[in-house]
Model the fold of this input.
Amino acid sequence: MASILQRQKSSILDRPLSKGKAEVNLSTFALLFSEMVQYCQSRVYTVPELQNKLTEMGHHVGVRMLDILFLRERTFKREVKLLNMLLFIKTNLWKTLFGKEADKLEHANDDERTYYIIEKEPLLNKFISVPKDKSSLNCASFMAGIIEAVLNGCNFPAKVTTHWHKGTTFMIKFDESVIARDKTVDGR
Amino acid sequence: MSRQTVRSGDPRKVSAELFTLTYGALVSQLVKDYENVDEVNKQLDKLGYNMGIRLIEDFLARSNVGRCHDLRETADVIAKVGFKMFLGIVPTVSNWSPSGDEFSLLLDNNPLTDFVELPEGQSNLEYSSILCGVLRGALEMVQMEVNVWFVQDQLKGDNTTEIRVKFIRRLEDAVPVGED
Amino acid sequence: MTVFNLYIFDRNGTCLYYVEWNRKKHSGIASQEEEFKLMYGMIFSIKSFVNRISPSDLKDGFSSFKTSRYKCNFYETPSGLKFILNTDLNVGNIRDVLHQLYSNIYVEYVVKNPLCELGQPIKSDLFKTKLDEYVRNLPIFATKTN
Done:
C-alpha cells in the first residue's frame, strides 16, 4: 500500500491542453452514445424523463467544453451580448464539437426571450430511428444539455428544449433578467 | 472574435473532446446512480460488452479482416486494426504467457482518460473498464470467449496502461432445432 | 434479372428480418416461422456439409446454389450473421452486394441505432426504408429485362 502512495502521480495539470484537433471514429462515438441512451432508458419510465436524463448528462459535457474553449482560445473574451453569445454557440461550439456550424439561428416572432438553433440532421440523431410509440423522443436532448450548460456558465441563464421541427430545433428560452440586462448593454 | 480550431471535417470522424467528455458524463452518471464502486465497474464492463457486440460488426464491415487463425494473429489485429480504427491508437502487444493463451495490450495514452483525474476515495474505480467489456463482447461475436482485465492503469499512477486478455475457449455456432 | 426475397439470420438462428419483392408464389408452409426455421436449417446443413467434403480448407465456403428457376445467394459474416437473397438465374456472384447490404445498411441502421436491440427481429423503419431503397436500386433488381 505504501508503495502505491509513494508513487508520483503526474498531475493532469502538468500536461498541455490538447489543441482540439484530435479526432476519433464516428462509430466509436455513435456506439458510446447509443449505450448511454439505452442505459438512461433502463433507468426511467417516460420519454420526458429520458430526455431530462440525457440533458443532465449533456451538462457535464457543456461545463467542461466551455472551460476548454476559453482556455484554448485565449483571445476570446467573455461575451456580454446575447446575440454574440448565441453566435458563439452556433459557430465556435458547434465547429469544435461537430466540425461544422449549426444550420440556423432564429429569433421567435412572438417572444423576445425565445431563440431557435436549428440543425437539420444532428449527428446525435444520425443513426437513431424513433419507434412510433415514442415519436416525441429526440436524443439530441443531450446537445440541449450542452448548450444549456454553456449558456448558464456564461451567465446567460436559459432553458433549452429539443423539438422535432425542421429537423431538430433547440428552443432556447432565456431568463427575463438576461433580456433586461441585454437591453441596458444595448443602450450604452 | 477567436481563433478557430480547425478539424479535418471528415464526416466519419468526431471531435475527440466530445467523445472523451461524453464518456466522462456516462461514468459520472454511473457514480451518481450506484453508490458502490464495484457496481460501477461492473456496469461499465457491461456497457462495454454491449458496445463490443455492436462494434465488432462495424469492424468486420469496414476492415477486410477475415477469420484469424490463432491468438497471435487475433492480438495483432486487435491492436493494429481494431484500436487504430476506433480509438486512433496502436497498443503494443506483449507479455505472452508461456502457453500462448494470454497476452497484454500496452497503451501509451488512453483517449478515454484525457482530462481525467480520479477523485479521492474513488481509487477503486476502474475508469476505463469499458474497454475490457468491449474486447470481451467483440471477441465473443467471433466465437472467442475471453477474460479481460486491467493490470496497470496510468490513472492510478502506473507507468503504463496494461490490459490483459486471456483466451478461455472457442464458441460454437448455434445448431438448429432438431439437428445433430 | 430480379430479386425475390431476403432473409437475415443471426448466429442463434433467429430470423432478424424478412422481406420480399417479386416473390409471386409462396412455399405453402403454414407459418412464416416454420419457413424461417427450415431455411435456417437447410443453410446450416449445406454450410457444414460443404465444408466437410471439401478437399482443402475452404476460404469463403458455401456462397450459392441454383435450381432451374432461382438462385439462392448466401453471405455470412465472421460474427455469424447470415444474409440469404433469392434471385433469378441471371444474377452472377453477388457477394459484394450482400457485403454492402451488411456494412452500409445493417451496420449503419441497426447496429448503431440504440433503439434496435441486437438478436431481436428488426422493427426500425429507417432500416426498412434504406434496405428497400438499396435493393430496388441494384442493377440485379431490374424486373423488365430479358
About this structure: Chain C has a mean pLDDT of 88. The interface with chain A takes residues 108-109, 111-116, 123-127 of chain C (CB under 8 Å).
